[in-house]
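Pipeline run #58 for the internal structure catalog. This entry was flagged by the ingest filter as a single-chain record with no existing model, so it goes straight to prediction. Upstream metadata was stripped on purpose; only the residue string is passed forward. Reviewer on rotation: M.T. Logging verbosity set to normal.
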Amino acid sequence: MFTFKDHDAVGDAPVEVPRVVATAKFEIGMPVRHRKYGFRGVVFDVDPVFNNTEEWWESIPEDARPKKEQPYYHLLAETPEPERSPYIAYVSEQNLVADGDDDPINHPDLDEFFIGQEEDGRFVPRAKAN
């Protein structure tokens, strides 16, 4: 864990503030699969650590609840169950594996985030305008 020196609100005394530095295993545009539930998706955003509500996190059964101090991925996800697909998923790194399936992922929002797909299966992100 790295720390940086910040200044308190009253004076110039430095305050040690812990910083978590996480390295994401999966990149934007990578097809992934959920390790336990098998649904597939394409990464369109990454949080270096958990960045959702406590209510969402506590809704996960305690024995299956992932740790917060790891990357979390926003996925354009699909499942073989048409009534539950497509959707947006938020998944911890520990619950994802790279997806090597040749079947296409057909999420309706792919065109909003990506301009196409490479031969290796990765999706090419659209350039963002600020």
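catalog note: The chain has one domain: 22-125.
catalog note: Helices lie at 54-58, 110-113.
status: ready for reviewer M.T.
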